[in-house]
Specification:
The strands form 3 sheets. The chain has a 6-stranded mixed beta sheet with strand order 2-11-10-5-6-7, with no helix packed on it. The protein has one helix spanning 14-41; strands spanning 45-46, 52-54, 60-62, 65-66, 76-81, 87-92, 95-96, 109-110, 123-125, 134-141, 146-155. It contains 1 helix and 11 strands; from the N terminus they run H-E-E-E-E-E-E-E-E-E-E-E. The chain is of the alpha+beta class. The N and C termini lie far apart (89 Å). It has 2 domains: 1-41; 45-155, Immunoglobulins (Immunoglobulin-like). It is elongated. A hairpin with a 2-residue loop joins strand 6 (87-92) and strand 7 (95-96). Keywords: Cell membrane, Disulfide bond, Glycoprotein, Immunoglobulin domain, Membrane, Receptor, Signal, Transmembrane, Transmembrane helix. This is Ig-like domain-containing protein. It is a single-pass type I membrane protein. InterPro entries: Ig-like_dom, Ig-like_dom_sf, Ig-like_fold, Ig_sub, Ig_V-set, T-cell_Activation_Regulation. It comes from Hemibagrus wyckioides.
Amino acid sequence: MCSGVVRGRGSQSSSTYLNRKVKKTALKMYLYLMLLVFICDGFRVLGPPGPLIVQLGDSVMLPCFVETPLSLEDLEVEWKRIDSETLVHLWQDGESQPESQNQLYHERANFFPEEIAQGNFSLLLTDVTSKDAGGYKCTVYTKLDSGETLIEIKEMGG
């Protein structure tokens, strides 16, 4: 007849040994899954809930941020027009790259370098013209992931 408890060498029952083994395996699987979720989930890039209404000649802040600050290592932030893929502003290698941006935005599209470490990648666009109306895309790249948000500028009264 079987008693249900098998004793091996030592005083520990096989069911106790099995329980410990299962718990260790479950813990390893849990930690692996949490790491996988962290890597796959990455980060979310956030922007305004609706279009930004601006008067010609004024300045407008185009919000772009992440909820949790990212590592600055290999961080790249790219602002582009949606309709034409025109490069409005580029943050790369730890600094703005004004030589890369389209001439229409030279000295009008400004970043806030001191805000980057807090996860704020907003762009200040000054002296807004009718050509500035339309869609913009803020894309944030890290070594492992990327995310983007879309922003629309509408001309007041337009």
